[in-house]
Specification:
Its main location: membrane. The chain is an all-alpha fold. The chain is 55% helix and 2% strand.
């Protein structure tokens, strides 16, 4: 600090707290836009997946929110990138091209699979998961629909291979 001119010191004195405040603000927005309530109610295309999740064991009151399955939890950089990408895509679709059925893209599928494994690793430890089958290809009802509902009426869709 000794070699700094008083002007630089003044700038640092004002700039640093501003930077900290901006950081806290950004962090709070990041958290706010990750809540199940925000994700489920901001866009009307999320109404059906949101309401269906109330009937699933994977519901918020059981400690499982949208973000627990839909964003990466093992890589913070990928988490930020994916959150930005999928958020922007959902906003676009919601505003300009509301789809009848929400299709799961490849990136989304990979993240979903990693999250199923993250929480259920102990249970599936002795099952061979390297055959390329996604958990949700069998557990199709989790958490967005009941398996007894015809696929044609489901709001989210996994292609059947
Ligand atoms: C238990 C994990 C889990 C939770 C919790 C969960 N989802 Fe999903 N979600 C899935 C799976 C699995 C699919 C793919 C299923 C399919 O396509 O049949 C999916 C698909 C979707 C899709 C279709 C498009 C895409 O991005 O893949 C949307 C939209 C969606 N979910 C929204 C939500 C919302 C909103 C919440 C919170 C209310 C939520 N999900 C909570 C597992 C989850
Ligand atoms: C954040 C942790 C978490 C994630 C992610 C998660 N689950 Fe679960 N899952 C739970 C909890 C908690 C339960 C209820 C307690 C239990 O039975 O272990 C549960 C229960 C289940 C059940 C039993 C269903 C029932 O009706 O009793 C199945 C099947 C299941 N999960 C499959 C999946 C699949 C497939 C995925 C990925 C799409 C997934 N889970 C992602 C935490 C998670
Ligand atoms: C080939 C189909 C298939 C695949 C793939 C599959 N499961 Fe299952 N799983 C079943 C069946 C069948 C049961 C027993 C019936 C039931 O409870 O739904 C079961 C049971 C479970 C249960 C216990 C359900 C309960 O009622 O307590 C959990 C949790 C679970 N699976 C998670 C997963 C996860 C995580 C993956 C991905 C690694 C996965 N499963 C992949 C077919 C599958």
């Amino acid at each position: 600090m000794k070699n700094l001119t008083s002007k630089t010191k003044k700038r640092l004195l004002i700039g640093l707290p501003l930077l900290v405040i901006a950081g806290i603000f950004l962090f709070m927005q990041y958290e706010r836009t990750s809540t199940t309530h925000y994700c489920g109610t901001t866009c009307h295309i999320m109404k059906i997946p949101y309401e269906a999740s109330f009937h699933s064991v994977h519901r918020e009151t059981n400690g499982v929110g949208c973000k627990d399955c839909h964003i990466p939890h093992d890589n913070i950089l990928e988490q930020i990138a994916y959150k930005g990408y999928s958020g922007a895509r959902d906003y676009y679709k919601n505003t300009f091209a509301p789809p009848d059925v929400l299709h799961t893209k490849e990136w989304s599928e990979k993240i979903l699979q990693r999250n199923c494994l993250r929480c259920h690793a102990t249970l599936v430890a002795r099952i061979n998961t390297s055959d390329g089958l996604q958990c949700f290809e069998c557990h199709r009802g989790e958490p967005h629909d009941t398996p007894i509902q015809p696929f044609s009426s489901q709001a989210v869709h996994t292609p059947i291979r």
